[in-house]
Specification:
Nucleotidyltransferase, domain 5, 5-stranded mixed sheet, alpha/beta, single chain, Arc Repressor Mutant, subunit A, about 400 residues
């Protein structure tokens, strides 16, 4: 239920109704493609003439195309509609060490992907990134580009669209949106990586039609959390909701990159696991990659296994706080740690059972690496502008 704000409201117009109907038809085509106009009218409850008018508008705007002709025992053969495979989106997933880019269609099927190192300084990074982006755009000369989505290991101000909080990048007050828009002529959507992963599951997940509440926890150099509750992505003041990775678990703990001590991510991130293995001091440059630690544990290295188990115990402790405070029905864990789920998963479940006794235990689900939730989330950032319920105007 959403209360009407009587101090700041707008009445629905006939244009709002038309836009809602348009998006309903567009979503039905996306979900049921290929589909005929007659089936669209039956499923939507709209008049066939209305559906035909909307379909013609969507074809003219290059959102959908006509495909094969069906066969019926009698009457006119239906022409099936589907999303336009030439309407493309560019997704960019920025991480502290590497940035991944991918070109995808409206169904989030990737046509091409590539990776580049993430430069230390924003200016150098933007120079290198815009060159790569231009090359990717030029590689699809017949495409109709819808926009660019970018996921960030931090938070962007929703009003200025500047990156304002990214401890693991060590960047402050960076405008990523304007230079890329100027270089490409395309609109750019920015979002925190965990929130982008939530949107990936909402729009492209196997249970996307039924998801109403979900917590996504991204585990990498740090820990990010995206919260989806009552069918809405929780944004909070300034878009900063969900920063549970910087919740202090131990005020006397190691210093976090955010400036606090004992944050959840200091104990449960990839960086923490490497610290448990090497004995390095917090903040020191890692002596090996987290993938190497996973490989060592798989090969039977006892110390590597213990490091992952310690990481899992702290990860479970943070998850228990989320369960107690938010009562989600599902928690999805995203990151390289899921490759060791046979070792990590049972520890998480045990810690949750010990520490969270106020709710029915949620389903704890590891995301598959092949699903690429971070990168697919960047596509969802652009998709939702046209497929989500429209604002009242």
């Amino acid at each position: 239920m959403q209360k009407i704000d009587l101090s700041n409201f707008r009445l629905a117009t006939s244009g709002t109704a038309r836009e809602i109907n348009r998006r309903i038809v567009l979503n039905l085509i996306r979900a049921r493609q290929p589909i005929s106009r007659a089936d669209l009218a039956r499923l939507s409850g709209l008049q066939r003439s209305t559906v035909s008018l909307i379909a013609e508008q969507l074809i003219a705007d290059r959102w959908i195309v006509e495909g094969a002709t069906g066969r019926l025992p009698r009457g006119r053969r239906p022409t099936y509609l589907r999303l336009n495979g030439d309407r493309l989106i560019l997704g960019i997933d920025i991480r502290p060490t590497a940035t991944r880019m991918g070109v995808a269609d409206l169904n989030a099927r990737f046509l091409t992907q590539e990776t580049m190192p993430t430069a230390d300084t924003p200016d150098t990074f933007l120079g290198e990134l815009t060159q790569r982006v231009r090359r990717l755009l030029d590689s699809q000369p017949n495409a109709s580009w819808e926009g660019i989505g970018i996921s960030l290991p931090g938070r962007a101000d929703p009003h200025s669209h500047r990156l304002v909080f990214a401890p693991n990048l060590a960047w402050k007050d960076v405008d990523l949106k304007t230079p890329i828009e100027q270089a490409t002529g395309l609109s750019v959507e920015l979002e925190n990586a965990a929130n982008a992963c939530v949107l990936s599951e909402v729009w492209f997940g196997q249970r996307s039609d039924t998801v109403q509440d979900l917590v996504v926890v991204t585990v990498s150099e740090g820990i990010g959390t995206g919260v989806f509750a009552n069918g809405q992505l929780v944004m909070g003041n300034g878009g900063f909701a969900g920063e549970f990775g910087h919740t202090v678990l131990d005020p006397a703990g190691p210093v976090c990159r955010c400036g606090n001590r004992g944050c959840w991510e200091v104990f449960a991130s990839n960086s923490a696991a490497l610290r448990y293995y090497t004995g390095a001091t917090p903040g020191a440059a890692p002596q090996l990659a987290f993938e190497d630690l996973l490989a060592l544990a798989e090969q039977g290295d006892v110390r590597a296994g213990r490091a992952l188990e310690e990481m899992a115990r702290h990860l479970g402790a943070g998850l228990a706080l989320l369960v107690t405070g938010l009562a989600p029905s599902r928690i999805m864990v995203i990151g390289e740690v899921t490759r060791a789920w046979r070792r990590v998963g049972p520890i998480l479940q045990r810690v949750l059972a010990e520490r969270s006794r106020t709710h029915t235990p949620p389903e704890i689900e590891p995301a598959e690496d092949t699903a690429q939730p971070r990168l697919r989330g960047t596509i969802a950032l652009v998709i939702q502008k046209h497929f989500a319920a429209p604002p009242i105007t």
